[in-house]
Design goal:
The complex is a heterodimer of chains A (about 200) and B (about 475).
Chain A lengths: L5 E4 L1 E4 L6 H4 L19 H4 L21 E4 L11 H8 L4 E4 L4 H8 L4 E4 L2 H13 L5 E4 L4 E4 L4 E4 L4 H9 L3 H6 L2 H8 L7
Parallel strand pairs in A: 2-3, 3-4, 4-5
Antiparallel strand pairs in A: 1-6, 6-7, 7-8
Chain B lengths: L4 H7 L2 E5 L3 E5 L2 E4 L5 H9 L10 E4 L16 H17 L2 E3 L9 H7 L8 E4 L13 E4 L2 H10 L1 E5 L2 E8 L8 H12 L7 E6 L1 H4 L3 H9 L8 E3 L4 H7 L8 H11 L12 E6 L6 E3 L7 E3 L13 H11 L14 E4 L7 H11 L9 E4 L4 H9 L2 H7 L3 E2 L20 E4 L14 E4 L2 H10 L11
Parallel strand pairs in B: 3-4, 3-6, 4-5, 6-7, 9-10, 9-12, 10-11, 15-16, 15-18, 16-17, 18-19
Antiparallel strand pairs in B: 1-2, 2-8, 13-14
Helix pairs in contact in B: 2-5, 6-8, 12-15
The chains are: A alpha/beta (about 200), B alpha/beta (about 475).
Chain lengths: ~200, ~475
Amino acid sequence: MEKFEVLQSTAVPLPQENIDTDQIIPARFLKATSRQGFGENLFRDWRYDSNGDRKEDFVLNNARYKGQILLAGKNFGCGSSREHAAWAIYDAGFKVVISSSFADIFRGNALNNGLLPLEVSAEVLERLFAQVAQDPQTLLIVDLKGQVLRVPVWEEAFAFDIDAYKKECMLNGYDDIDFLVNQKEAIEAYEKTKPWEY
Amino acid sequence: MAKTLVDKVWDAHVVRSVPGGLDVFYIDKHLIHEVTSPQAFEELEARGLPLYRREQIVATADHNVPTKNQHLPIQEPLSRSQVDKLTENCAKYSIELFGLGHQNQGIVHVIGPELGITQPGMTIVCGDSHTSTHGAFGAIAFGIGTSQVTQVMASQCLLLSRPKKMRITIDGQLQRGVSAKDLVLHIIAALGTGGATGYFVEYAGSAIRSLSMEGRMTICNMSIEMGARGGMIAPDEITFAYMKGRPYAPEGAKWEQAVAYWNTLFSDEDAVFDVEFKFKAETIAPMITYGTNPGMGMALDASIPTNVAPGEAASFESSLKYMGFQRGERLLGKEISYVFIGSCTNSRIEDLRVVAEYVKGKQKAAHVEAIVVPGSKQVETQAKAEGIDKILAAAGFELREPGCSACLAMNEDKIPAGAYCVSTSNRNFEGRQGPGARTLLASPLVAAITAVEGRIVDITQYLN
């Protein structure tokens, strides 16, 4: 996993609520047996029509908007547990998704892949959508160490929550496997006490 | 101290708590399938890690398998490659595999319970969000991503925060023609598609207690559709009667010992939940969804809302546009061209019996294509033993071989763009059943009646 410290970027706005993982990466693209290459099918059916032609009105096809931050409506990533959704977003060049809420499994998958799910209030999200629509060049600064989202043009900063352990993992590029494998002694000891194995 | 059901099972699986609030959480059973496991095996190998507890893993092929001619090699090269990869990985690591053609093959959430692998008080994970199904037995069961699949392979554990607790109590008696599916669609419509995010939900009350295990599985299965981390129902005599004698269930003295433990798995009277909701079973009608998330559901004879919940305007508008519906419109009389009966939500023998009982001696509408995909080889075999295959065939329904099928359309079973499909599955997301497909979620009974009538009808007039 890549380390994440500070990111300064413009944002790509997707002002829609309840974006499910079937939209992020449709099931028919889940047939690969490796993790690479999902980015080209990110939001496939919103980006391309049935002939494979680009839908010009979709934000990822709009040259006005660029950046490594995806700005999306509430309950982002609901539905399927497919980690391919996080892989696709990351593979397409995003490092942060900002929303007012995330589905639980998506949040975990994102964190396990160095993609930061950054939660702001519904009000701040609305303001960000308006700001980015008005000026797509608006820079946002995500400071993970300080747990703060800075919006220089407003001269404002918004604190965000992240689990302390997960924060350390992202800052250092660690993931849970190393940690869990190192718990082997405790796990083996626990297994000897299992009361429910019949 | 009084404890909730989820806390009792949770506490029994904490290996240790890590400063900062996470638990090293032990997993009893790990179910794997062809779509979300290949990258996990690859990762395990890339890191040079051994598989820690192979005997606690069970594998099956379900997501992208064809539902016709399963005895022949899979035609579609990418699907075949994933299924082959699973077979190869299972052979390499000596993991028990119920592959295509095996008598135990089927949708992972159908076979776990039917084989007795799923047991009360267990922790069960799978790289599939509908793992919540197994909570119907009083297990903590939830879907995980592929990185977590690797973690469980390497350590039999996950690092998790303890969930918040929600209880949903449904008292009373369901009306005629109203099933577990209607009940859960009603709850999701009330709470919204993200309404239980962050919570483990316990379902309680007399309406839940009187449901069969199949019905309880349907309820827990769809917990994820309101964002819940999982759903749970305390085990009882109905649970034990369902489990007894199943191939992987304990036997003899071990059975007695198990039941004694399982009988301790309920929320104590004074247990405190973070949030509670109550519903009356009598107020619940047969349901249908009109939009592109499972929270957009209503009674069959109701009208699509004209007022949208605050903060849902953008997705509401795009949903209706996708579905070709208007605000305030009723769906009664809408012509439907596809009916899909299947998926981990409603493909069990009880679901097929409901369909067969209704369609016996009737005929599907000429313009409707109706397919029935059993959840497992065992369900298929049982259906044939009961003559359900003949009843369905006579009524013009096609009984296929088991798999996830048109629920997510990873195989050939797709609904064409623009077509309406009444489906017993769990998700009506855009393109879920094929690019451009329009899905209306409903119960097996509603699906059966729709197939016969060829349009959406008020089913209460069709019940004897």
